[in-house]
Every structure is written in C-alpha cells, then in structure tokens.
Amino acid sequence: MRTYDSVMNPLYDFDVVVIGSGPGGSSAAIEAAKLGKRVALVERKEDLGGIWAHAGTITSKLLRRAIANIRATGRVVGIEGKDLAARFSMTDLVEQVDKVVAQEIQAVSWRLARSHVTLFSGLGAFLDPHRIVVTSDFDTRELSAEYFVIATGSTPRRPQDIPFNGVSVLDEGEILGLKAMPGSLLVVGAGIIGLEYANMFAALGIRTTVVDRHKRVLEFVDRELVERLIESLQELGVSLRLGKTVQTVRQDPERVVAELAGGERLAADCALFCVGRIGNTERLNLGALGIVTSEEGLLSHDDHFRTSTPHVYAVGDVVGFPALASTAMMQGRVAAAHLAGQPDQARRRIPHALFTIPEMAMIGMTEEQLRADKVRYEVGRARYYDTVTGQLIDDSHGVIKLLFCPDSKEILGIHCIGSSSADIIHIGQAVMELNGTLDYFKDAVFNLPSLAESYRLAALDGLKKVS
C-alpha cells in the first residue's frame, strides 16, 4: 500500500496529470508516484511509448544496426556498393521493429502499473488551469489535478508546398513506408536526423545527396569531429550541398526532382525531408492557461521545467533542444521532484550521441566554446587505430579527444568519433561528474584489448604537452 507525503487535496481528482507517455511523460509519472502523488497519465494513442517507441529512436537505431551488420558481413564476403542494398529487406526490418516496439510498450505499461499510475486513453485539452477534458472514440471525461506535466512530444515539420506522398516524398517519420531501397536518395536537412539517415543509406551503396540551407552543420558539435564525419560521408559517396535552399519539389513519372535557389536541379528516386520538428501543443488549448508557445509549438520553462504557469510543467520534445529520450527522462524526473517539493538530484552535464556511421559522442565544452569564453585549455588525442581493438575492427576514423585545464588537469570536455562512441563516452562522463582529473586516465588500468584504452593514450598525449 502506498503512503502519501501530504494530505490529499479533495478539490482535485489527482495530484498530478501527465499528458503523453513517451520517455519524459512516463518518467515524470513514475517519479511522481514514487514520491507519493496520485498520478494519472493521458495518452492519445492506443499504445504507450510515444514517438520514441513508435516512429523515432527505436526505428532509426534498428535501421542503423541492420545496415551496419550488412556492411560488416559484406566486408567479410567481399560484397560492396549497391549489392549491399540488394541484400537489405525493409520487410524484415519492419518485423524486427514491431517486435521491439511491442516489448517496449509492454515494459512501459508494466512500470506504470507497478507504480499505480492511472491510465486514460484519449486526447487531452485544457478547460481551465486545473481541469482537462480527455476525448476518445468512446467517451469524454474531465480530470482535475493540482499539477500537470505536458510531455506530448513532436512531429516532423512538413512544409506545405512539398508534395508528400509517403512513397517517394517522405518525412522522417515515414521511413518504414519504403517498400524497397531506392537507387538514389535526396535528403533535405543536415541536422542530426538528416545526417544519420543519409549516412545509413549511403553505407548501403545508395547514391545520396544532402541539401541544407546552412553552410555549417551541427554547430553544437566540436568542429574537429564534424570534419571527420564529413570526410567519412564523402568516402561513402555522399554529396553535400550546403548553403542551398530547396525551392520546389515535383514528382516526375520516375523521379523526384528538386529545384534549388539559383536554378540547380537534383533528381533522385526518393526525397526524405528532415527539416525540424513541431511540438505537439496545438490541440492542448493552452490559451486556457495563458501559455504561449513559440512558432515551432515549443514551451519555455525554468530550471525546474515549469512553464509560465507555475503548476504546469513541460518536458521532452515540447521544450526543444536537445530533444533526446535520455534528456526527456531526466527532465521528467526533475519536474516530478520539484512539484513534490523534493530536492533536484539530476545531473545537468548531459552526454550527446549521434548515431551516424561512425558514431559520435560528446560531453562538456567544445574547443570553440572554450576559446569564446577565453578559457585556457589543452588537448590530448588518441586514435582508435592506436589500440589493438581499433585495428581488429579496422576503425580508421575513431578518435577520442580530451579537453582539460593545463594547470589543474580538470577535464573540460570529451569528444569521440568511431565505433561504440555512444557507450565509451560514459566512462569519461563518470570521471567528470566525480571531479576526476586527467591523471585518473593516466593511472587507470583498462581491459586489453578494448577501445577504452584510448582514454589512457589520450591522457598521456595531453600530459606530454604540459609537462
């Protein structure tokens, strides 16, 4: 039996109502329930999990893993180029996605049930600051709560003048609609999602072109890593058209043709638009709360993820960058702790990962940020290829880069590109959070062979520069 940390407010049906069951919403609901709150969760879809489970992270990561496995097998048996795409089955991938999604839905449902969170199916909209109406195909009901957490996620931006058809002109959420691998692909948008998909398809030998209106991509990523990624993309045959704007797109009988500003035309079998996402806030009737969103449907918030209406919190994609499942979960926990009057225990130093081929991961400051802030620093580097494991897996792109204070040896930032970077970054994250210095890596014993050994090599390289 649960015990509550405060007297239940008889004015409300629940202490907390969470709208949306993705990583941010489910984390907020479970954390609030653990802290003794009566919690309800509203989800408009029949199944739980949000975009993370149904059309986002799981789909793209399974696609990436399948392609990486095909490439690895191809290298062993001598198959390269377009022959790789012929061995790829979108049907098999869809079956695998469905299986993993079903498991994730079951896991989310079990965690919510174990936490005694009450579920309501339907679309939630505010009636006034403390009441929402939940509308489904079967009924309509009102719920009242002392606090609300908005975690409604986002959807791909779809420019109105683009003839999306779900077959040859797609947004990033429709990738599983491909019945077969195209012979050529045009990706519009060189953000994280656009570059990940461009990288994946190019790795199958599919002729891929990326167009973006910005001349520089991934501004938040260390420039050295970006340069290495671009080099890898070019080795795969990706053509980058940066600083270019797509003006029109038309569907010819056999090809999709995009016209760029300046008159250049690009033709491909398929066009994939990855031009940002819009927060799912339009149907929440936030005007009843006096809350105004940005043009992208995003909500502003304070350090505790409170909106301009103090008893209403927002987490996940609806608050914008970095819009990661990992950060959404942290935000949900922070919001729940704050509304329950508990201290915020969350770490704000967040690792990022880009699941390109090769992967990139980072935490802390970049060289560009340190120079802009006039902070003295030094760099220690190590190539993955300098380790036995790097040679065994033939990772010629892998590099780990340690930024540190030359006086105190404090670690200011860690940046890596190469195999398993999304996992390897967490070694450095733990050392940074526990206030370790570069000397930790110098003196630590790492398994041999392992890519983690790169930390010690990078530390020795950096210390040599300041000794």
What's a quick, concise take on this entry?
The chain has 467 residues and is of the alpha/beta class. Helices cover 33% and strands 24% of the residues.
pLDDT averaged residue by residue: 90
The parts where pLDDT drops under 50 for at least 5 residues are 1-6
Overall 3D shape? globular
Main sheet specs? 7 strands, mixed
**Strand pairing plus helix content: what structural class?**
alpha/beta
- Through-space gap between termini: 61 Å
Strand content is: 15-25%
Q: Write down the Rg.
A: 24 Å
Number of strands: 22
Task: State the share of residues found in helices, binned by percent.
Answer: 25-40%
Tally of DSSP helical segments: 13
The oligomeric state of the chains shown is single chain
Search tags:
seven-stranded mixed β-sheet; globular; 22 strands; 467 residues; 13 helices; five-stranded parallel β-sheet; disordered N terminus; alpha/beta
Structural description of this entry:
There is one protein chain. The chain is of the alpha/beta class. Helices cover 33% and strands 24% of the residues. It contains 13 helices and 22 strands. It has helices spanning 23-34, 50-54, 57-77, 82-86, 90-114, 192-203, 223-235, 325-339, 367-372, 388-392, 421-433, 438-443, 453-466; strands spanning 14-19, 39-43, 118-121, 123-128, 131-135, 140-150, 154-156, 169-171, 184-188, 207-212, 239-242, 246-251, 256-260, 265-268, 270-273, 277-279, 312-314, 352-354, 360-364, 378-383, 399-404, 411-417. The strands form 5 sheets. Strands 1, 2, 3, 4, 5, 6 and 17 form a 7-stranded mixed beta sheet that branches. It has a 5-stranded parallel beta sheet with strand order 8-15-9-10-11, covered by helices on one side. The protein has a 5-stranded antiparallel beta sheet with strand order 18-19-22-21-20, sandwiched between helices. α7 links the parallel β10 (207-212) and β11. The longest helix is centred in the N-terminal third of the chain and has 25 residues, at 90-114.
